[in-house]
C-alpha cells in the first residue's frame, strides 16, 4: 500500500469569504452602532435653526425674516409665516 500523507488545513488559504457567525454578529453590532450614531447626527441637524427671508405681495412688497428648524415641513413654515403676518 502506498503511503498517504495526512491532509490538513492550509493556514495560508484565504477564508474570509466563508460564513462566520461571530464575525457576522460583530458586523451587525457595528452596523447598529453606526445607524444609531447617524440618526443622532440627523436629529441634531434637523433641530438646527434656519433663518429664512421671505416676501409676499399684497399691493406693496413686504420682506420679512422668520426662524424655523431645518426639520420643519413646508406646512409648519407656512403656519409660522401666517402667524407672523397676522
The overall pLDDT average reads 89
Number of domains: 1
Secondary-structure content class: alpha+beta
Count of alpha and pi helical runs: 2
Strand content: 15-25%
Lateral strand order in the biggest sheet: 1-2
Protein name: FAM50A/XAP5 C-terminal domain-containing protein
InterPro entries: FAM50A/XAP5_C, XAP5
Region (Disordered): 1-34
GO biological process, one term: chromatin organization
Summarize this structure as a short list of keywords or feature phrases.
FAM50A/XAP5_C; XAP5; FAM50A/XAP5 C-terminal domain-containing protein; 2 helices; 44% helix; 86 residues; two-stranded antiparallel ribbon; 2 strands; 21% strand; alpha+beta
Briefly say what this structure is.
With 86 residues, the protein is α+β, with helices and mostly antiparallel strands. The protein has two helices and two strands.
Please explain how this structure is put together.
This is FAM50A/XAP5 C-terminal domain-containing protein. The chain is an alpha+beta fold. It has one domain. Helix content is 44%, strand content 21%. Strands 1-2 form a two-stranded antiparallel ribbon. Strand 1 and strand 2 form a beta hairpin.
Topology:
Layout: H1 21-46, E1 49-57, E2 61-69, H2 74-85
Antiparallel strand pairs: 1-2
Amino acid at each position: 500500500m502506498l503511503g498517504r500523507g495526512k491532509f490538513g488545513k492550509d493556514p495560508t488559504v484565504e477564508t474570509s469569504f466563508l460564513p462566520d457567525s461571530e464575525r457576522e454578529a460583530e458586523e451587525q453590532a457595528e452596523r447598529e452602532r453606526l445607524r444609531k450614531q447617524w440618526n443622532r447626527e440627523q436629529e441634531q441637524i434637523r433641530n438646527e435653526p434656519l433663518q429664512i427671508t421671505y416676501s409676499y405681495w399684497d399691493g406693496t412688497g413686504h420682506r420679512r425674516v422668520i426662524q424655523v428648524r431645518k426639520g420643519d415641513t413646508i406646512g409648519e413654515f407656512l403656519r409660522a409665516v401666517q402667524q407672523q403676518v397676522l
